[in-house]
Amino acid sequence: MPKRLTHEGAECPVARAVDVIGDRWSLLIVRDAFDGISRFSEFQRNLGLAKNILSSRLRELVAHEILEVLPAADGSAYHEYALTQKGRDLFAILVSLRQWGEGHLFDEAEPHSVLLDVKTKRPLRKLEVADAAGRILEPSEAFVRKVD
Amino acid sequence: MPKRLTHEGAECPVARAVDVIGDRWSLLIVRDAFDGISRFSEFQRNLGLAKNILSSRLRELVAHEILEVLPAADGSAYHEYALTQKGRDLFAILVSLRQWGEGHLFDEAEPHSVLLDVKTKRPLRKLEVADAAGRILEPSEAFVRKVD
DNA sequence: CCGTATCCATTCCGATACTG
DNA sequence: CAGTATCGGAATGGATACGG
Predict the structure, then answer these.
(1) What's the domain count of chain A?
(2) Does B5 have pLDDT greater than 90?
(3) CATH code at B29?
(4) Termini Cα distance of chain A
(5) In what residue span(s) does the HTH hxlR-type domain sit (chains A, B) (predicted)?
(6) A55: domain range?
(7) Gap from B81 CA to C10 C1', in Å?
(8) What is the pLDDT of residue B36?
(9) Contact A23 B20 (CB under 8 A)
């Protein structure tokens, strides 16, 4: 019986993270949540995904405490989905995905959306990996160590 | 006819990026490549995934120019997989995934691997989203603008 | 050692119909 | 509007067998 194996017991944090948000919809739902989307139909219309898939993904995100269900701000009978702190902490991941996509997945002059600073209306700084002192590191300047 | 829809034509760079690397294996293959893995069997043994899936994912990564095939350094008949510049630029994404996983997906004192600076042996700085001047931004301080 | 090919179960996902 | 239920096709993925 072939059972899908998960990485939830992995010692590598990347593997666990991929296990939680490494599919084709979860991060896009989170992206929309950052943009203020909170209702089922808004997600559905905005993303264009099937409702059963959206329902399933929302349940998973709530189970992982990335989203939480709130009792509806406008008095309507239905609830809303909002980011938790754990969900808001995905911000750097979304920004790094965005910057990589902007740099490598669009032709010159092809239209794409950009992320701007509210105050200055200027593009954000490029995310760079740095050491404790703030010096930018190349991939070869970092290494993985297992801890116990 | 239900056909899987893609985001390759999307104007949102996050959506395009998810389309390319948003599955359960691609980023883990890239992570291993950063660790110096270059041979088919090494990936396979290290990740524990089925060979047909690995084969398929490697082909896709090469097609997207994230990996490239090199003619084998040690003189053997087979080739090696190496990161391109586009692939190395995924570094910030992997580090942000790692840091989120470290912070939210492990119990206290549960063993996990860490990423250290080669020189100082100290943990890396936490990746933070910042404006052009370097000021750290909350998610609410950034907004998306469509450009044409 | 490096893959490809095939089989089969599971999962994903879109489409549609339906309920409150 | 906010979902749930169900269907069928497509993709995922593990296991195994096979060929270079």
Answers:
(1) 1
(2) no
(3) 1.10.10.10
(4) 33
(5) 12-109
(6) 13-88
(7) 30
(8) 94
(9) no
